[in-house]
Amino acid sequence: xxxxxxxxxxxxxxxxxxxxxxxxxxxxxxxxxxxxxxxxxxxxxxxxxxxxxxxxxxxxxxxxxxxxxxxxxxxxxxxxxxxxxxxxxxxxxxxxxxxxxxxxxxxxxxxxxxxxxxxxxxxxxxxxxxxxxxxxxxxxxxxxxxxxxxxxxxxxxxxxxxxxxxxxxxxxxxxxxxxxxxxxxxxxxxxxxxxxxxxxxxxxxxxxxxxxxxxxxxxxxxxxxxxxxxxxxxxxxxxxxxxxxxxxxxxxxxxxxxxxxxxxxxxxxxxxxxxxxxxxxxxxxxxxxxxxxxxxxxxxxxxxxxxxxxxxxxxxxxxxxxxxxxxxxxxxxxxxxxxxxxxxxxxxxxxxxxxxxxxxxxxxxxxxxxxxxxxxxxxxxxxxxxxxxxxxxxxxxxxxxxxxxxxxxxxxxx
Length: 414
Prior knowledge:
Layout: H1 11-36, E1 41-44, E2 47-61, E3 64-66, E4 73-76, E5 83-84, E6 89-94, H2 97-120, H3 127-150, H4 153-173, H5 181-192, E7 203-206, E8 211-214, H6 234-247, E9 256-258, E10 263-270, E11 282-287, E12 292-300, E13 310-317, E14 329-344, E15 350-352, E16 355-362, E17 365-370, E18 373-376, E19 381-383, E20 399-403
Antiparallel strand pairs: 1-20, 2-10, 2-14, 3-9, 4-6, 5-8, 6-7, 8-9, 10-13, 11-12, 11-14, 12-13, 14-19, 15-16, 16-17, 18-19
Helix pairs in contact: 2-5, 3-4
């Protein structure tokens, strides 16, 4: 009987080694192909502005007094954010909520009726009248777009209402037959159903001083020294801060009158963060809750010599609106320095002849663009552009190469 042929002991190990070698060769081949086929990627050069900023919490101090309410139900006669004169009516008083509601409905209906009467009284005008209305229509459209873009809903609604009126008047001026008879009949019927004499206001609240009316109060009105704000120190400020925190959100119904449009933002910052600034300088302050930037003047706190000492910073502002008048404790960002340039990925920056720059793709050819790094962020850099001292610099809308193989000046990309 023939002997069986036995496999050699090392044959299994040889097969395993061969398999490993093949896998290594495949891996190397894939890596080589990957390196050889690095795809070209560009980024459009767009101008952006970034800031060196100090983040802190600010206490807002104003020249403000709460409106002294009377017994009964108060209904404001002025809008939130409206200017008022000393002695002028700012609210009507009623003996009951029902009377207040009925009288408010009466006033709204009278306003609506007068609106339609004014529309009826529009006579057939001249060409100039139509042109004027068309100008008003365009102005209202632009106003609506700007207000909507800024998030000013009330202003946008006002522009929309005016636009509707102007369009209607234009139709009437070009002999369109628009009949308001039925509308007025309905409004007059509603007015007749209200017993005006029984629901008239029993009294009025008058403004104690001239200023800016705000319907929002929080219990801090008059609690902080407005006239002494420039003499405020850190210890006193911390006491104010604790008081503001304890009453924040305590909203009353009478509103307040702000006597001066100049108001203050007070906060504690590190002196080092204000390096290069002096009292009297202007800075931009970003209010996070409003997503809004305002211009402020440094009244106190800049130019402190102590390198690491905390200092009380007092900023003043003369902008005023209904939303600004409701601020008290706010997280803010003080923008002490700005950098404007082209924002690109750090991978786009190269060095040529000892100078920084990028490569732009122009008609499939890499062109060197000289640039200085103005600011370095976590995942971007801000590069100079349009500098008259730098020839061949970056231009807005250049296609900056941020990834590619063997990129150099003059290289052609198919």
